[in-house]
Design goal:
Length: 308
């Protein structure tokens, strides 16, 4: 098992470093812009909130998994592990909601549908963004409080170590899937997921129709605008892929379905879940001209420093 844990920690470390750098870049760029102009657009506000939540999420996930490895041999680690788990769940849910509102915002601003409800939301989405972000803080807190009792602390054996005088303690991740609180906890993850998927599918559908309409109305099969729309569609598909992978892996880990299987699957779920905030943030940077330009400059500067 030890080689599996070591390899998993190395991969997790790489994912965490990529996520920390990517989200740190998003935070620095938008905070610098806010300091300079004293205002942020609604889109930049969501991106900044998402970057901050994911920046701390990456650090928390990495530290949490270190304790996951060390906890069986550390006295008093259960309390620390439990607190890290709760904080990680809070940041998890919060980043899910922020990513969902980003998808909803893009959908409202870019997609074109004639339904009255959609038109009403399209006109008011900019004013709703601050309220949606604030409500996400409260909803995520309620969701994470439902996971307070999922970490069990139990004593191994009844004997006491003669040298240290301490009883050996083991921490375990235990979820009672029949509990009503657990069901509510899963709904707290499921609700933003379904909103995200619906808004992303609506946006892809609208862009796809618009792209096909433009190809029929022009002599040139693919112009610059069409290529831009296709690029957005590819980015959204990547978003959905990362989001679904993350959601499924997190759900399986929380339900502890394979508790009596092997440690391999648990680490696989952790690595898939950790890949989402990193990969999603990288795609956001590549799809944003301003962030992409600054990222390229930072990479060129880093290369120059390495050469020197």
């Amino acid at each position: 098992m030890l080689p599996v844990i070591i390899i998993s920690l190395i991969i997790l470390g790489i994912e965490s470093i990529i996520g920390i750098i990517a989200n740190g870049l998003i935070i620095i760029v938008h905070c610098t812009e806010w300091i300079r102009s004293r205002k942020l657009t609604c889109c930049d506000m969501i991106l900044t909130s998402l970057g901050i939540s994911r920046f701390f999420l990456q650090w928390t996930m990495f530290i949490y998994n270190i304790f996951f490895v060390l906890s069986p041999v550390m006295n008093g680690a259960c309390t620390i592990w439990r607190n890290l788990y709760i904080f990680c769940m809070y940041l998890n849910t919060l980043s899910l909601w922020f990513a969902t509102w980003l998808s909803v915002f893009y959908c409202m601003k870019i997609a074109n549908f004639s339904q009255p409800l959609f038109l009403w939301l399209k006109r008011r989405i900019s004013g709703l963004v601050p309220r949606l972000l604030m409500s996400s803080l409260l909803v995520s807190l309620v969701t994470c409080l439902l996971s307070v009792n999922v970490i069990d602390r139990k004593n191994i054996g009844n004997s006491t170590n003669n040298l240290s005088g301490n009883i050996r303690v083991e921490c375990s991740h235990n979820v009672n899937s029949s509990s009503g609180l657990t069901i509510l906890h899963m709904l707290g993850y499921s609700f933003p997921f379904f909103i995200f998927v619906v808004s992303a599918v609506l946006l892809i559908t609208s862009l796809w129709r618009h792209t096909k309409r433009m190809e029929k109305n022009t002599n040139i099969s693919r112009d610059t605008i069409t290529d831009a729309h296709v690029s957005v569609i590819k980015g959204l598909i990547a978003f959905i892929f990362f989001y679904i992978s993350y959601f499924v892996a997190t759900l399986l880990f929380l339900l502890n379905i394979f508790a009596h299987g092997s440690l391999y699957f648990s680490w696989f779920c952790v690595l898939v879940a950790a890949a989402y905030p990193s990969g999603h943030s990288v795609i956001l940077i590549l799809g944003n001209p301003k962030l992409k330009m600054i990222a390229v400059r930072a990479l060129n500067y880093a290369k120059c420093c390495c050469i020197d």
